[in-house]
Amino acid sequence: MRMHDLPDEKGHFGRYGGVFVAETLMAALEELKEAYLRCAADPQFQAEIEYDLEHYVGRPSPIYHARRWSDHHGGAQLYLKREDLNHTGAHKVNNVLGQALLARRMGKKRVIAETGAGMHGVAAATVAARFGMECVVYMGSEDVKRQAANVARMKMLGAEVVPVESGSKTLKDALNEAMRDWVTNVSSTFYIIGTVAGPHPYPMMVRDFQTVIGRECKAQMMALAGRHPDAVLACVGGGSNAIGIFHAYLAEAAVRLIGVEAAGEGIESGRHAATLCAGTPGILHGNRTYLLQDADGQIQQTHSISAGLDYPGVGPEHAWLRDSKRAEYVAVSDDQALAAFHALCRLEGIIPALESSHALAYAARLAPTLPQDAIVLVNLSGRGDKDMHTVAARSGITL
Amino acid sequence: MSRIAATFERLQAGERKALIPYFTAGDPDPAVTVAIMHALARAGADVIELGVPFSDPMADGPVIQRASERALGKGMNLARVLGQVGDFRARDARTPVVVMSYANPIEAMGWERFAGEAAANGVDGVLVVDYPPEEAHESAALLEQRGIDAIFLVAPTTTDARMRELAAAARGYIYYVSLTGVTGATHFDLAPVEEKLKRLRKLTRLPIGVGFGIRDGASAKAVARIADAVVIGSALVQLLAEGDAAGAPERAAQFVAGVRQAMDAR
Predict the structure, then answer these.
(1) B60 belongs to the catalytic site
(2) Structural domain of A159
């Protein structure tokens, strides 16, 4: 079994993944899987995606050699994959576009989505507007408060934003509520999951739509540097931007793959979202994966300065990559992410998303330990406009 | 013969249908859970479905979500639920108890230990909401070794091919979910349920219970005409939460007695 052939036909990545949902959704997931596999093998469908990725999203996104930022650390050369330059400001749109085209093929006129920071919700609202679909976005009421600008953006795009008041009122609860909507409206509705989690075929399908990131990188790095990078870094919440950039490099054993989780206020504080670093295997949201849970199997509250990483689970393929040691997973605190955020603003004139700032922070720590001709590629998965209020409040800036 | 099989045999002999109330263990207070179970049995419940509280009850509507939150807030966990079944069993050797849970609390305890403790405490059936038969081979075998029935859901969206698979895996009874939706939903329509049960009966000789959307004597009576068992959850859970915890067993008894009467009326 080759690593990049996973999942198996039942959606397993080693012992992880699978389909753990109530019976009502089983037929819908089967239908989705069949429709997706048909489309994946259909050149016409692939051509539609490629057209929209180029003309609507603005792909390929460039790779930028951040020379001043590299010199600042005095070690490896740091390159940034500029997913922040995509339409809607993050990698999320790659996946949403694929799923929306699939929904259209399946004749579904209503799409639903969950969102944490709001980037996936904005991407879903955007693409739904473009295809003339009804769009409902579930968002934890805490996140609605924290991310007012993105809520306004989604409403402007014609989506209905439903604040979720149950549980911890954050991303995991938004996902629960979206699942409840789907189970109720299963015949009319397509559920656009925003990350590589959920029941099979979602982890596989979302990954496939995001692998465009790594495929572009491979060709771009060859053109820019004449070789593969020594290490590829990406932040991991659910893990979609990380899988997107890792996947093309899985077969290149010499390339280190490093996923960076949110250590929040420090793993020892208990207030973090570092699932792969500090979690244990369990079942949530339709798949078996690492979870932040207590000894009784109850899911724990997470914390991160970035709402997009504030999730107690992680995609099952990452769980598998962790156990098989093909990828390494580390964690970076709120403060370290914030320092990297400011450094990139000042040294390169690029305002990164707080999520991506976690990957940047680890790159900043790694670079000085490597020789000057080493190459580190970081997925700059999104831009930081949405984080102005959070950063200002934390850094004593008055808006 | 298992307690579940014996119960359905007895009911069928008397041409009566089973009444299966559901409530969340530990709600409104862990101190009254066992008393509620006894009250339900006395009032005419034939099987009791006891819910294991979970932090992320994806298949449940607001009523059972809140019940789960309240129970967790009072320190409930799976081990305590099994202990409560044991306490109930000490004074009621006859009424079957089915533990209904999401997968993760059981995974966290470990299937081996769970099956052992469930059997030791007199659990008769286990229904794991988010564990379809595809993923349930090992767990179902563990339960079967200890004489516990693995109960499965069939839904309106279940295809005939899956129904066959489910019928083969199911033990005890089959739980038919009457509508596409979460617990506590009310858009219930009897005709399609009747149609689906006809197809299901060709594939299984197990009794079939129907749940979701049944909230009172009238809807229970209507369902009892086409099913072998009627499951009532959210309506009871709602009632348990309204008023003081000490009065919960009495409220439960009154409600279930009323439903029982409606079901048995000719």
Answers:
(1) yes
(2) 13-53+92-207
CB-CB contact of B26 with B76 (8 Å): yes
pLDDT for position B186: 81
Average pLDDT over chain A reads: 96
Across the range A202-226, mean pLDDT stands at 98
- Cα(A186)–Cα(A30) distance, rounded to whole angstroms? 12
Tell me: do A107 and A76 sit in the same domain. no
Closest CA relative to residue A92, chosen from A57, A64, A54, A62: A57
Complex ipTM > 0.85? yes
Average pLDDT, chain B: 96
- pLDDT tens for B4-23 read 999 999 999 999 999 999 99
Catalytic-labelled residue, pool B27, B29, B49, B149: B49
| pLDDT single digits (tens) B209-243 | 999 999 999 999 999 999 999 999 999 999 999 99
Which of B58, B78, B134 comes nearest A180 by C-beta? B58
Q: How close B193 comes to chain A (CA, Å)?
A: 14
CATH of range B3-261; options 3.40.50.2300, 3.20.20.70, 3.90.190.20, 3.90.1150.10: 3.20.20.70
CATH of the domain at A285: 3.40.50.1100
Chain B residues in contact with A281 by the CB 8 A cut-off are 107
Query: Closest Cα to residue A282, out of B118, B82, B111?
Result: B111
Q: Within a domain: residue A6?
A: no
Query: B42 pLDDT exceeds 50?
Result: yes
What does the alpha-carbon distance between residue A399 and residue A393 come to, in Å, rounded to a whole number?
A: 9
For A283, name the nearest residue in chain B, comparing CA atoms only.
Answer: B104
A181 vs B contacts (CB less than 8 Å): none
Same-domain pairing of A37 and A154: yes
- Whole-angstrom distance, CA of residue A140 vs CA of residue A143: 5
